[in-house]
């Protein structure tokens, strides 16, 4: 059954406690997620978004418990990735003539996914849909994070339905942000931003400023994943503006892979040197082969600088580090500084190659890095510690 948000708005989505990965296995979702759908009942009735494909029949059956489907006047599809539009085919079997409001690119994506000739109504920024006492105003938000994305503002209730914007992969039976652990929610919101929206940060800033310039009263932000921002909803808007502006904290993160522990020993020594040189900086050390890749990227997102370490393997570097570097390049981190380190035996190519990869990813290179032959002894580890001191001083 649905959950009442306001007298006119009911949450009719799906809580997915079992979800552990998303986008295939591209994104980890340790806290599960939700697929938020909203039913608005005024003189006219509108449904905003649906649910993911595996829950299509469950979604439609639950919706039938909430309303007679033929009483739904409009379907608003804000973004048409299958976690939002997946239940649309099942729903349209029941109400095939119901108009679907979406952007022109949204229509193209729905047609590309489901190959159906439904009753599409294309919208653009500023278009409105009166429901009675309330009115929906549409705002295109391309590349946040697909080209079809749009937001919907509901007057009277003063709600911004923001689709993937301001969301988190976070499962909870408590709908609102004031009923959950705020530190958990903010971590998942940051992880979501880092791994999905960071490369679109210029568009994030532009779109938020555009919406703020509309001077709309705001009581709630209702995203398509995770909690609803009810208590001081502006807080996540302000936080997004910070995250979009080349975000960094006073943190340095060391990420490494290791074969026989030599590179791990180097990482620990470098970290010790950093801490001795600057006791105020937060230092984190993460094993790329053992830690979750998306959590590692989130720590890099938080950092003002980071180091990547790996032994030389087959004249190159390891699979775990290679995948991470590719993701770093794709996420387009701004104003980050980095360097490389690693041990080697008969070939020491990895550090140079890592440095080049970081440079190609748009990262500012602090120096040529440091490498050590075979297993580092105490003198070599002392060199690594001194390297850590010089690294933090150079920032």
Polypeptide structure, described:
It is a single chain. The chain is α/β, with parallel strands linked by helices and 395 residues long. It has 2 domains: 3-244, 4-Layer Sandwich (Metallo-beta-lactamase, Chain A); 252-393, Flavodoxin domain (Rossmann fold), CATH 3.40.50.360. It has helices at 56-66, 82-85, 88-94, 104-114, 182-197, 201-213, 234-244, 262-277, 293-302, 319-331, 350-360, 378-393; strands at 3-4, 9-11, 14-16, 21-22, 27-28, 33-35, 38-41, 45-48, 74-76, 100-102, 120-122, 128-130, 135-140, 150-154, 159-163, 220-223, 251-256, 282-287, 305-309, 337-344, 364-365, 370-373. The chain has a 7-stranded mixed beta sheet. Strands 17, 18, 19, 20, 21 and 22 form a 6-stranded parallel beta sheet that branches. Strands 12-13-14-15-16 form a 5-stranded mixed beta sheet, with no helix packed on it. Helix 8 packs across helix 12 (378-393). The chain starts with a strand and ends with a helix. The model has no long low-confidence stretch (mean pLDDT 96).
Keywords:
7-stranded mixed sheet, alpha/beta, 6-stranded parallel sheet, Rossmann fold, elongated, 12 helices, 2 domains, 22 strands, Metallo-beta-lactamase, Chain A, 395 residues
Write the layout of secondary structure elements.
Layout: E1 3-4, E2 9-11, E3 14-16, E4 21-22, E5 27-28, E6 33-35, E7 38-41, E8 45-48, H1 56-66, E9 74-76, H2 82-85, H3 88-94, E10 100-102, H4 104-114, E11 120-122, E12 128-130, E13 135-140, E14 150-154, E15 159-163, H5 182-197, H6 201-213, E16 220-223, H7 234-244, E17 251-256, H8 262-277, E18 282-287, H9 293-302, E19 305-309, H10 319-331, E20 337-344, H11 350-360, E21 364-365, E22 370-373, H12 378-393
Parallel strand pairs: 8-9, 9-10, 10-11, 15-16, 17-18, 17-19, 19-20, 20-21, 20-22
Antiparallel strand pairs: 1-2, 2-7, 3-6, 4-5, 7-8, 12-13, 13-14, 14-15
């Amino acid at each position: 059954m649905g959950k009442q948000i306001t007298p006119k708005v009911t949450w009719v989505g799906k809580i997915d406690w079992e979800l552990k990965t998303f986008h295939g296995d591209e994104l980890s979702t340790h806290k599960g997620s939700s697929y938020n759908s909203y039913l608005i009942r005024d003189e006219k009735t509108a449904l905003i978004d649906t649910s993911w494909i595996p829950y299509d029949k469950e979604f439609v059956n639950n919706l039938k418990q909430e309303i007679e489907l033929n009483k739904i006047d409009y379907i608003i599809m804000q973004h048409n990735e299958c976690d939002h539009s997946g239940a649309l085919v099942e729903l349209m079997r029941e109400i095939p003539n119901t108009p679907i409001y979406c952007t022109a690119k949204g229509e193209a994506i729905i047609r590309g996914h489901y190959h159906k000739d439904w009753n599409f109504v294309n919208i653009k920024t500023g278009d409105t849909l009166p429901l009675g006492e309330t009115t929906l105003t549409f705002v295109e938000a391309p590349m946040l994070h697909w080209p079809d994305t749009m937001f919907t503002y509901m007057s009277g209730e003063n709600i911004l339905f923001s689709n993937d914007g301001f969301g988190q992969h976070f499962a909870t039976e408590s709908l609102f942000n004031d009923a959950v652990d705020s530190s958990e929610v903010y971590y998942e919101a940051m992880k979501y931003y880092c791994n999905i929206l960071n490369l679109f940060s210029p568009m994030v800033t532009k779109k938020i400023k555009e919406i703020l310039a509309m001077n709309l009263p705001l009581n709630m932000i209702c995203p398509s994943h995770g909690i609803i921002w009810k208590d001081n909803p502006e807080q996540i808007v302000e936080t997004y503006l910070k995250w979009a502006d080349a975000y960094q904290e006073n943190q340095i993160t060391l990420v490494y892979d290791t074969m026989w522990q030599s590179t791990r020993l180097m990482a620990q020594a470098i970290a010790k040197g950093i801490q001795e040189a600057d006791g105020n900086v937060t230092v984190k050390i993460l094993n790329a082969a053992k830690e979750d890749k998306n959590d590692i990227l989130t720590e890099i997102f938080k950092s003002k600088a980071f180091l990547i370490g790996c032994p030389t393997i087959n004249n190159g570097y390891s699979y775990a580090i290679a995948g991470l570097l590719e993701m770093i390049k794709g996420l387009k981190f701004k104003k980050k500084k980095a360097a490389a380190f690693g041990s080697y035996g008969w070939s020491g190519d990895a550090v140079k190659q890592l440095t080049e990869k970081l440079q190609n990813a748009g990262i500012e290179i602090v120096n040529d890095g440091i490498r050590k032959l075979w297993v580092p002894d105490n003198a070599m580890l002392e060199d690594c510690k001194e390297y850590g001191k010089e690294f933090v001083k150079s920032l």
